[in-house]
Amino acid sequence: DTEVTQTPKHLVMGMTNKKSLKCEQHMGHRAMYWYKQKAKKPPELMFVYSYEKLSINESVPSRFSPECPNSSLLNLHLHALQPEDSALYLCASSQEERGPYEQYFGPGTRLTVT
Amino acid sequence: AQSVAQPEDQVNVAEGNPLTVKCTYSVSGNPYLFWYVQYPNRGLQFLLKYITGDNLVKGSYGFEAEFNKSQTSFHLKKPSALVSDSALYFCAAIYNQGGKLIFGQGTELSVKP
Prior knowledge:
Radius of gyration of chain B: 13 Å
Number of domains of chain B: 1
Low-confidence stretches of chain B: none
Shape of chain B: globular
Number of strands of chain A: 11
Shape of chain A: globular
Radius of gyration of chain A: 13 Å
Largest sheet of chain A: 7 strands, mixed
Mean pLDDT of chain B: 94
Structural class of chain B: mainly beta
Oligomer: heterodimer
Order of helices and strands of chain A: EEEEEEEEEEE
Low-confidence stretches of chain A: none
Number of helices of chain A: 0
CATH class of chain B: Mainly Beta
CATH architecture of chain B: Sandwich
Distance between the termini of chain A: 36 Å
Number of helices of chain B: 0
Helix content of chain A: under 10%
């Protein structure tokens, strides 16, 4: 099973709302990732977790807060977002962070900030 | 600097014809190279990767890619295109065994009947 699941599929939120995105994998992967993707552009890396610890933060604004409760779950907490944060948010996982390991992507959460 | 380039924003192919989607990478060590495909409103799907060894790599859905070290290229190919191959294709690289995937800008493939 090479499936990464993400919920919700769609999310509309106001600039004062607090919401969370969820990601889950059951492949035993030890690295998990959050990406932001604008239409027809490559994904932009936001965060990397390796063995449940934050490994990379690509200078993401603090209104995005990641959390890795266990090796299968990854959350992205959202607060006080801006309209320009509207995008497709992708979660991915790989066997390890370092090495020749492909990443498996979830279907994404389409986020609209009003 | 470590980078991946896809020189064509769009590739148009007739169904049944061979297709090629081009990718070049910057020379900085020996990167691992990947191809991903993205269908509309979906996540990225892994197609194939090159680590070392045989320069021709076979992947999912009949796709293959040819690694050429002298030309620093990793072009994606398929002998006979299908309409269902129409999608956005990304070439990507991992340098220095780091976890960060560096993506090309993407190539939109359109296969017409």
